[in-house]
Amino acid sequence: MQFHRHLGWLLLFPLFVLGCGKSGPKPVPVSGQVTLDKKPLANATITFTPTDAGTTSGPPLESSARTDDQGRYSLKLIKYNRDGAIPGTHKVRISLIERGATMENKVPPQYNRDSKLDFTVPPEGSTTANFDLSSTP
Fold first, then answer.
1. Half-sphere exposure of 58 (CA within 13 A, CB side)
2. Closest Cα to residue 131, out of 31, 34, 30?
3. What are phi and psi of 7, to 5 degrees?
4. How do residues 34-67 score in pLDDT, each as one tens digit?
5. How many distinct structural domains can be found in the chain?
6. Secondary structure in 3-state letters for the chain
7. Model pTM?
8. Residue 73 falls within a domain, yes or no?
C-alpha cells in the first residue's frame, strides 16, 4: 500500500513541476521596427521596462530584443524567458554600442541613458511598436 502511495506522488510530481513553470506574468507579443534618420537600425538593443505601479514590485519585468538588419525586433520577457512584454506603460531604451578603441553608443542619449521614450503595451499585444529616432536633438 505504501509503495502505491509513493508511486502516486512520484507520478504527480512532474505535473506539479510543469504547472509551476507557467507561473508569473502573462506577456503578450510585442514587435516593431527601429529606424535612425529614416534608415533601419541594425543590431541595436531595445529594452522595455514597466513603469506601472502594479508591475514594479520585485525585480523589474523587463523585456528586451536585438534588432535585425532591417531594424525589426520581437521582445522577450527576460526574467521568465518568454516571448513578449507585460501589458502596460513602459520606459523604452534603445542603444547600439560599437566596440573599438573606445566603446561608443551610436544612438543619442535621449533614446537610452536619458530616454523620454515610452510605449503602452495593449492587453492584446502590438506589432507596431515602431520608433523613428533622429541623430539630431
1. 7
2. 34
3. -65, -40
4. 999 999 999 999 999 999 755 545 557 899 999 9
5. 1
6. CHHHHHHHHHHHHHHHHHHHCCCCCCCECEEEEEEECCEECCCCEEEEEECCHHHCCCCCCCEEEECCCCCEEECEECCCCEECECCEEEEEEEECEEECCCEEECCCHHHCCCCCCEEEECCCCECCCCEEECCCC
7. 0.78
8. yes
Total Cβ atoms within 10 A of residue 44: 25
Long-range contacts of 95-100 (CB under 8 A, 24+ apart): 95/44, 95/45, 96/41, 96/43, 96/44, 96/45, 97/45
Residue 7 counted as domain residue: no
71: in domain: yes
With cell 523613428, the residue in question is 132
